[in-house]
């Protein structure tokens, strides 16, 4: 028993160990207890309780139940445990407890969401968003970067929100779409399967002046000044281009 608990504690502390390993250990230990291969004594329960703060969040509540600790822990115990996790930068474990017990008033939820985003623990961050919609909007704002825009868009779809309520994210997504097509012009050669000519890209975005304006800006950024000027002229974009972009093209 002591060895199994110490092993479970050790693998819980190493975040790169897959969660399935923790699950296998606790399930095997519980099976041995049920089949009376191991007798769960009060002393064993004391040991199990002492290791609780190091147990991985995904199996925490299962661990408490299977080690017979339910009567020894209450919401206040879990609240203090969550605070300990925050102090130790174990934000994922803290988030799972906060979500289960709805400890909204006792923690800086937005700060914890920020830390979860930084560590790519998006599912746990989404769970916290169930506590209040303001946390959902905060999460989407934190994910509205070039690297995470797709994740933010997926959350908007999942929670049935309006993309127009997030103009910064919408602009990033539009630019990302445009850059995908532009890369096939800039980095491919005529005759290659993925090559896309500039005029074909313009055809795709005809009537969408904002997309064509993004196209002009990226062409300027890539040094394709003549091509950028041509797009402006062909689509009458002069009133839709940023002043800085106009300045870059003034001598063309």
Tell me what the structure shows.
By secondary structure, the chain is mainly α.
* Contiguous uncertain segments of 5+ residues: none
Kindly report the CATH topology of the largest domain: Serine Threonine Protein Phosphatase 5, Tetratricopeptide repeat
Number of helices: 15
Q: In percent, how helical is the residue content?
A: 55-70%
Give me the CATH architecture of the largest domain, please: Alpha Horseshoe
Number of domains: 3
Anisotropy-based shape:
elongated
Name the CATH class of the largest domain. Answer: Mainly Alpha
Largest sheet: none
- Mean of all residue-level pLDDT scores: 94
Number of DSSP E strands: 0
Distance between the termini: 78 Å
- The portion of residues forming beta strands comes to under 5%
Radius of gyration: 27 Å
User: What is the SS-derived class?
Assistant: mainly alpha
Secondary-structure element series:
HHHHHHHHHHHHHHH
Any chance you could write out the topology, listing elements then pairs?
Elements: H1 2-13, H2 19-34, H3 42-50, H4 60-66, H5 75-87, H6 91-101, H7 109-118, H8 122-129, H9 133-143, H10 149-158, H11 167-186, H12 198-205, H13 209-221, H14 225-235, H15 243-249
Helix pairs in contact: 1-2, 5-6, 6-8, 7-8, 7-9, 8-9, 9-10, 11-13, 13-14
Q: In brief, what are we looking at here?
A:
The protein has about 250 residues and is mainly α. The chain has helices at about 1-15, 20-35, 40-50, 60-65, 75-85, 90-100, 110-120, 120-130, 135-145, 150-160, 165-185, 200-205, 210-220, 225-235, 245-250. Helix content is about 65%, strand content about 0%.
């Amino acid at each position: 028993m002591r060895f199994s608990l110490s092993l479970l504690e050790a693998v819980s502390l190493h975040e790169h160990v897959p969660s399935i390993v923790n699950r296998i250990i606790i399930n095997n230990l519980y099976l041995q207890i049920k089949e009376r291969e191991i007798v769960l004594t009060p002393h064993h329960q004391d040991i199990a309780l002492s290791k609780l703060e190091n147990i991985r969040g995904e199996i925490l509540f299962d661990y408490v139940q299977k080690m017979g600790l339910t009567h020894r822990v209450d919401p206040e115990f879990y609240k203090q445990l969550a605070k300990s996790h925050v102090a130790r930068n174990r934000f994922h474990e803290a988030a799972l407890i906060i979500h289960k017990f709805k400890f909204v008033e006792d923690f800086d939820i937005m700060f914890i969401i920020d830390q979860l985003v930084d560590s790519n623990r998006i599912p746990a961050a989404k769970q916290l968003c169930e506590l209040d919609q303001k946390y959902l909007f905060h999460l989407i704002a934190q994910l509205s970067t070039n690297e995470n825009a797709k994740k933010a868009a997926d959350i908007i779809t999942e929670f049935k929100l309006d993309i127009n309520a997030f103009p910064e994210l919408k602009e990033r997504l539009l630019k990302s779409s445009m850059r995908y097509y532009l890369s096939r012009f800039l980095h491919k050669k005529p005759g290659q399967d993925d090559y896309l000519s500039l005029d074909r890209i313009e055809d795709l975005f005809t009537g969408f002046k904002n997309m064509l304006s993004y196209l002009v800006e990226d062409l300027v950024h890539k040094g394709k000044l003549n091509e950028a000027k041509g797009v402006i002229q062909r689509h009458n974009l002069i009133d839709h281009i940023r002043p800085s972009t106009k300045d870059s093209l003034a001598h063309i």
